[in-house]
Amino acid sequence: MNYIFNLLIKFNSKHSALLFLSLLLLCSACQNTPTVNSLKVNTQEELNEAIANAIPGDEIILANGVWKDIQIQFSGTGTKESPIILKAETKGQVFIEGISNLKFGGEHLVVDGLYFKNGYTPTNAVIEFRVDSKNIASNCRVTNCVIEGFNQPKRDRGDLWVQFWGRHNQLDNCYLAGKTNRGPTVRIDLKGNESVYNYHKIINNHFGPRAPKGGPSAETIQLGDSGTSMSPSYTLVANNLFEACNGEVEVISSKSNFNEFKSNVFYKCEGSLVTRHGSYCKIDGNYFIGDANNENIGGIRLINTGHWVTNNYFYNLKGKSFRSPLAVMNGIPKSPLNRYLQVTDIVVAYNTYINCTSPWQFGVGVNIDQKDVLPASEIRSARPVRSTVANNLIYNEKGANNIIIEHDKADGVLFKNNIINNQGVDFVNDKNLLVSDFQLTKVSDDIFVPSEISVDTEPFIGFEFETISKDLFGNSRTNSKVVGAVSKTDNVVNPNILDKSKYGPDWFSNVIEAKEPETHIVAKVSDIQITINEARSGDIIALLAGIYKVNTPLVINKTITIQSQGDGKAHINFLGESNTPLFELNPGGKLIVKGLALKGNNTNNAFASLKENMSDHFGLSVLECDISDFNYVLKAYKESFAERITFKNTSISNCANGLELSEETNDKGDYNTEYLTVDNCNFTNVKANVIDYYRGGYDESTIGGNLLVTNSTFTDCGAKESNKILLNHRGIINVNLVGNTFKNNAVNLVSLLWGAKNNIHSNNTLLNSGEIKTEQNLKLKLMY
Amino acid sequence: MNYIFNLLIKFNSKHSALLFLSLLLLCSACQNTPTVNSLKVNTQEELNEAIANAIPGDEIILANGVWKDIQIQFSGTGTKESPIILKAETKGQVFIEGISNLKFGGEHLVVDGLYFKNGYTPTNAVIEFRVDSKNIASNCRVTNCVIEGFNQPKRDRGDLWVQFWGRHNQLDNCYLAGKTNRGPTVRIDLKGNESVYNYHKIINNHFGPRAPKGGPSAETIQLGDSGTSMSPSYTLVANNLFEACNGEVEVISSKSNFNEFKSNVFYKCEGSLVTRHGSYCKIDGNYFIGDANNENIGGIRLINTGHWVTNNYFYNLKGKSFRSPLAVMNGIPKSPLNRYLQVTDIVVAYNTYINCTSPWQFGVGVNIDQKDVLPASEIRSARPVRSTVANNLIYNEKGANNIIIEHDKADGVLFKNNIINNQGVDFVNDKNLLVSDFQLTKVSDDIFVPSEISVDTEPFIGFEFETISKDLFGNSRTNSKVVGAVSKTDNVVNPNILDKSKYGPDWFSNVIEAKEPETHIVAKVSDIQITINEARSGDIIALLAGIYKVNTPLVINKTITIQSQGDGKAHINFLGESNTPLFELNPGGKLIVKGLALKGNNTNNAFASLKENMSDHFGLSVLECDISDFNYVLKAYKESFAERITFKNTSISNCANGLELSEETNDKGDYNTEYLTVDNCNFTNVKANVIDYYRGGYDESTIGGNLLVTNSTFTDCGAKESNKILLNHRGIINVNLVGNTFKNNAVNLVSLLWGAKNNIHSNNTLLNSGEIKTEQNLKLKLMY
């Protein structure tokens, strides 16, 4: 009947108002069992027509298969009871590929079951909740979809995967992973009255791994921006799994007001949930799980006013300062809109910190000592005030000496009834932590709850603390004196937070079955590329001993190991053109070379990224190799990025240039690799760019770039280095030089370390090689 | 029964829970007719005891009479149904005087009928809605009270008359007038979570005249401050009469979010309702009434985001720029917290502007041309964006050429369906104003509504415009196509907005019956002071012709005219000590001298304020006088202030110093008189400080200081002026020199005008007197 009804409306609406009303009355009688008008479409034209004609209750079915280079403009007006639905014929079998996107315009529209991959958006967003500024979506929904690796060819070409506008829109049960280019994965926009008080929901999603971008603007979710940070948002982010969302220091960057973050799981994410701009957020009942080792995994970082952090569970987090389990920042007095407002009126109550060593850090970001190199409007000297930290629980399986780190004094914070088991180890306790020897009960691998706590105090009842009525698991706090996230000490049910079937689409899993790598033995040069092409990602190419003369670059676009087979060594002599690489690292190409001798013709290169269109990251490990006679050993071009580049037990000699990762010169905080590691290598007669690794721009929220050089020797290097620095790592935040020997290098400095950051050195021997110098405050270009 | 019940609770509560419950049940049966336990108190001790013992439903009666030097700490816990009331025995007959104040601590407390006068608070506020930071009031109320002239002795000693903290507190039906010292009359404070989401109400009050303070910090109501401008306030300011609230440029300074200003009357207030910080305010159905002449009377000035200005009525306003009927400011990009955020997402709809000439001014405060003298963080270059001005009505009885003034381009504003009757006069119309020849119907002296409007357009329906469902008078807009504040064109009922009985206490009126001044004829010197003391304010002292030798200063503490009686001239020779004045202007002393000859001994002064404790303003008019042989003609001491100082038709000769108003050197925007007028006067041989009038500090919101010098001659003056400027008016915003003659004055400059401000000159003759120079951008100390 509904079908007839729809047809009648379509064709007769102008002429038969009476009939319309009659049918409406008829229909209202049957509204409990609404039927649906389904229409399958096979082409863009059919889709456009179906959308143009759709009425409430219609279902448009996208036929299974690949939809390539399709821009879907989903405009229409559904109703709450009868939305218009655009869905996959079979969930997960409709692939949106190529240069494609999806825009919503209208009300009560649902998109269900699409899979975005192998492509990128021609516009600012893959999915956008508006057509244009006059056609903005409300009450629209994306559900059960996947967006995977849908990256712009260029890292600097920013985009978003899901851009919210309007009000009451929803992203649920989706899986999003693998964004490499600039821009948050999901962003809420609040420009315009149509998009404030938005009450959007981001729920039940699985945010899969996002590798470090190597610079800012790689949040998983950003809510607003500083320019709209005065606006009320009321977005709810709940019940999502964030897994290895490592894009940058902010997994979630809340930049608007009244947002709520509830019951999310942050699993080994190298970043934090940050209230960057805007105030009055609720952060309740979330899990922050670390690995007891990685200092990049963060918790919650607070800026601004009136946030409530309650019932959260922090486990095995070792982050410090910006990445602390709880980082409370200093603000800038009368801060510019886009910088750091003072923390005021926050409440941190009933949270549990297990094995987080020094979970609370205050005055984070204080930089009064840099007032000579920074303008006054950059100096974070305003300490938190009018704030309360109460009824929290801390357990350290290994006692620590400092539980609360005060980068600046926490004298504006009231500490009440916080209980700690520090295993009897003495610690600085001027904030009245109550010591108890309570024990833990294991609920799951990552979840522990306290057994009975033997402290004879009542929970502190601050202003409106009665609103913290439930605990992490939703149990009532009434009559419970138990502090921390969990109000009960017995009969605690495992919340199964890592059961991935609870998040994302029901038809998709990112769990990859482990498989043994296959070894492909190669004996002649012409087989190398063929074998690489045929191998599966993760496989091994084993070269029999001998000399391989390679004329054109070997293309690496998957994870592959190339090594010598047996005891003999394979020698690869590269005869390719000047400035071409022996190994051309393509997007997604992660190369391990092991036990090879690589030799160039003095004009070509050993390893290089593509010169452009590095839409995915590369990776490189060089182990036990001999490398000689190249122009560049490694050349990373602009907008290329590798999470890790490692040289180990390798000798490099007679090259014009060494490891070159210094093309990100726009000083916007970008760099070419997260970790550059050189261990037990010998550099001999490398004339310039021995190591050249650059990050530019003053940006306190890029905390990256890691250079580790250990147990290596550098001899007769740097003779042609114009800047007279052997290891040139300007702007890299973390540098550590240990146990190296520098001999007869014709430079002024082996290294210029940045004292204010994490740049250190120890046990190095310098012979006729200049010196290692530390400059406390490096002058860099201001980014903001 | 209630009395017995109270006693039982007081004396037996610990012992008779059962009895208590029984009585409670009994009482619940009679709750519709609650009786009240009244207790009259006569002393502070009795009051304190009564407060300490008060229970819900109690009424504490303050005995009639003067309560001097009393600090009332009204703590207690009433209930919504049964508040604790502190009231006057007879409303208006209980006077709080001396060093006194009132603090609330607790809930559901009411203060009713008190009269604060003749005193000042020893603390920061006369009435404060908290005892201290741990004892904050909620649901408390001040009603039916008067605070009048309750000023600190020193203008720079800041205080508040009513300071709100907590939530749900109320100031209603009160009269507040005559504040002269630093500080807003009423302020809402939002520091601390207890004081946000406050939903305070300021309703049905009469804010009587507040004279200009001569510098900033003299708002009538301030809601929050920049430091808490991110906080939700939700204060309601409704149905108040603001009468000549001239303290400074901001009558109301909204510095928090979500405040509502509804149905208030701003009657000839020299200032504006300003959304200074914070966003999302509603300004609906207010009246802004000017006098068709005074350019200081303002309207609404907008800064920040998301404000809605609807159904307001603007009449006879001639303010410009900051004081425009509608001033939409430019912001500072990435503004510091305490400066100017960009205007975005505002809606100005359904307002009426009658005889406001150029009612809409955009880009107000643009100062790009001052970028050489100001830091970048002071440059207001960000124009309004994403804003709508629609369905407004403009009527100019005299057509104007510029209706919309664009100080900077209004290119981010959408103009829709605004209708104007400009009497057929051509005007710049690039914003599509719709011209109509509609006529007006008079509803009252200040209220006019349009007759039928002959424009064939529909009202513009912007986003959420359906929420503007009622008009200025509360009539439904449904089915009305009439734009402007009033949706009907016939049968409009006079709203009687100036019926003062609708505002403030029922027992009080500030209407003063006009009375004829009485003339007191005085013949001998010893009678002068006696007669002044006995005269009523406004009277005339008429001196018979002759010479009066005065030995000690004449004290002026009321409005008094001293003049010669008849045709002969009275000569006053002042023989007083050096640096004492002939006329000592005390607080509230407003002196007119007319037709007198005043002569000093070269060491004493003609006119001076008190050196300190000028708790009220003074005033001075000198007409047709001869003044000679004084040290200072006029000496205004620091923290003294006169609204007007006028010299007319007067000769001043042989004085060491002239008019000296330059002690406000702390550069916080203060100055000593609002209007200094010199007309048709002769200055001869005045050696220094001929006119010395100073305002310091860069503060765009102090728009004051007015120096008008016309048709006067200055001869042989300035010889001992160290700065070599004859008329020294550094920092004064409005200066006009017209038709004067300067002859043989030994100075470099007659005047150094401030080109960027309102400093002008015309038709002056300079003979051997240096020059008049204009400096475009004066360098002043930054105040913020």
TrEMBL record, chains A, B:
CDD domains: PL-6. It comes from the Bacteria. Keywords: Signal. Residues 1-31 form the signal peptide. Pfam families: Chondroitinas_B. The keyword Signal applies. This is Chondroitinase-B domain-containing protein. It comes from Flavivirga aquimarina. The lineage of its organism: Bacteria, Pseudomonadati, Bacteroidota, Flavobacteriia, Flavobacteriales.
